[in-house]
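Internal ticket - ligand job 96, zinc ion:
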Amino acid sequence: MKAWDYEGVHVFAEDGSGHMGTYCNYCFVKACPGMDIEADNIAPIFATDESDYYPECEMCGGVFEYINLTEEGKAEVEDREFWNIVDANYTNRGGA
Ligand SMILES: [Zn+2]
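stdout (structure tokens):
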């Protein structure tokens, strides 16, 4: 993936009042009909971005795992993966 490629965008209110949502390029078309993905209030999620967590598409739940995580973010993900495994083992034994 190239640094300038992106699979998702953050959408901000045109009047600058805040973050409206996060969508993958596919859902963006459905979530924001008629909006130009290259408009000033749309911020692409680039592969070079760094964040404490992976952004997620609000419509399809797709996770943009191609960005970089901060050290804090990496620790968080490892922690979550550990608990997911614990949960899965519990479910496999017939638990809730
Ligand atoms: Zn999506």
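Auto-summary: The mean pLDDT is 91. The chain has one domain: 6-92.
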